[in-house]
Amino acid sequence: MTGVYEGKRGLVLGVANKRSIAWAIAKRLADAGAELAFTYQGERIEKSVRDLAGSVSSPLVTECDVRSDEDVARVFREVGAAFDGGLDLLVHSVAFAAAEDLEGRFTDTPRDRFWMALDVSAYSLVSCARAAEPLMDARGGGSIVTMTYLGGERAVPHYNVMGVAKATLNASMRYLAWDLGQKNIRINAISAGPVRTLSARSIAGFPTMEAIVEERSPLHRHIDADDVGAAAAYLLSDDARNVTGTTLYVDSGYHAMGM
Ligand code: NAD
Predict the structure, then answer these.
(1) Distance (Å, rounded) from C-alpha 198 to C-alpha 152?
(2) Which of 1, 22, 59, 180 is deepest in the core (most CB within 10 A)?
């Protein structure tokens, strides 16, 4: 992939630490020449994100809580200022649900935490895509990638409200593809199998999810964050210029199975 992203500028949301899927994607893009801005959520992870961003000579690292319209507007203003008013790539790798809603019964999810999970994990794609649109339009087009999971299409025990959020994210991705296609902006999702990250640790039964993939997927093995990085690097590249509104499964083929 060397040089494929030379001259391309991207914004990456969702790096928390070196295990984050967003970081695996960022590394791939940076290694192939992309210039990348990063956001982080909260002081707790600021240093870790600044250190990682520094290792790829990022010109911009800024705070963003995607629940805040002000944060999202400011971030895209800063990105426009750092990148001469243009943006080619957007990586959306953000999700959150309360730990207590990722165990027990979905039926018991309270109203406030239901909407919070959808706000952070699905609406944020809509608000970020809207804010990215003029910057990508200024470049004659762009490409956006978001992260989803099979639990948005089928019931996966413990995934609960996050599955409902991913279903909303998947549908949002397709509607955004229709709207933004007019401006040559593509948007796709990657449906990843289980990867051990900070967020994954809060899902009760995560080791069971991994064990089932190993037992029942056609390839009988786990995926890692770098597999997702490779898939994202393809979807974000000009090689995928006629691919939009789709979901690419990086899950050792597990989604193809009936049992
Ligand atoms: P991660 O914990 O490294 O990344 C999640 C990110 O979301 C963190 O950087 C966190 O700061 C950010 N975030 C949470 N709330 C936020 C908010 N209000 N504002 C801004 N950022 C916020 O975990 P990950 O596994 O790399 O997750 C990245 C994406 O991949 C998520 O959408 C997740 O659902 C998806 N995914 C993960 C797996 C897996 O097994 N790890 C599988 C399929 C899909």
Answers:
(1) 20
(2) 22
Run of H or E including 187: strand 185-192
DSSP classification of residue 191: E
Q: How many angstroms from the chain centroid is the CA of residue 50? A: 19
- Dist CA 26 CA 38 (whole Å): 9
In a domain, 2, yes or no: no
Token pair for 166: 């991913």
d(CA 252, CA 46): 33
Atom of ligand 1 nearest to the CA of 67: 18
Q: Which range marks the domain in which residue 72 is found?
A: 9-252
- Residue 223: Cβ within 10 Å count: 21
Domains contained in the chain, number: 1
Q: What pLDDT, in 10s, does the model give residues 51-102?
A: 999 999 999 999 999 999 999 999 999 999 999 999 999 999 999 999 999 9
Distance between Cα 64 and ligand 1 center (Å): 14
In a domain, 4, yes or no: no
If one residue of 41, 46, 199, 255 were mutated to test the ligand 1 pocket, choosing by the most ligand atoms within 8 A of its CB, it would be 199
